[in-house]
Amino acid sequence: MEEIFREAKEEQEKYDREFEEEQQKEGVPNSLKLADDDVTKLVTDSKSTRGFQKVSDSPANDSPRKKTSKLPTAGSTVRVVSGTFAEFVGTLKKLNRKTGKATVGFTLFGKETLIELDRREIVAENE
Q1: Is pLDDT at 91 greater than 90 in this prediction?
Q2: How many independent structural domains does the chain possess?
Q3: Residue 96, domain extent
Q4: Which residue has the higher pLDDT, 22 or 27?
C-alpha cells in the first residue's frame, strides 16, 4: 500500500514540475506560489499596519452598504430561501420578533399547512 502511495506522489510531483516548466516557458508569472513563511509574513504585516478601524471607515469597504430588507408583515407573500422548504412561496401568518420565528402557511396537497421557520430563512416576495 505504501508503495502505491509513494508511486502516486512521485507521479504527481513529476506532473507538477512539468506544469511549472510549461508556465515558465510561456512567461506566466508564478504569483500564486508563495512559501508558507511568505504568507505568514504577509498576514502579520497586514495586521500590524492596519490598527483598529470602524467597519464603516474601512478602505476595503468601498461598496455602498446594503439596505437592510424590511421585515415582511403578516399576510404578505414570502419566499423561503434556505432549509427544507427552500424556494417554496407562502403567506406569512405571524412573525415573532422576540424569538425570530415566523409562521408561514403553504398549500400542500390542496390543504394549507402552517410551518414555523427561522426569520432568516424567509424574504418578502417581490410581486
Answers
A1: yes
A2: 1
A3: 76-124
A4: 22
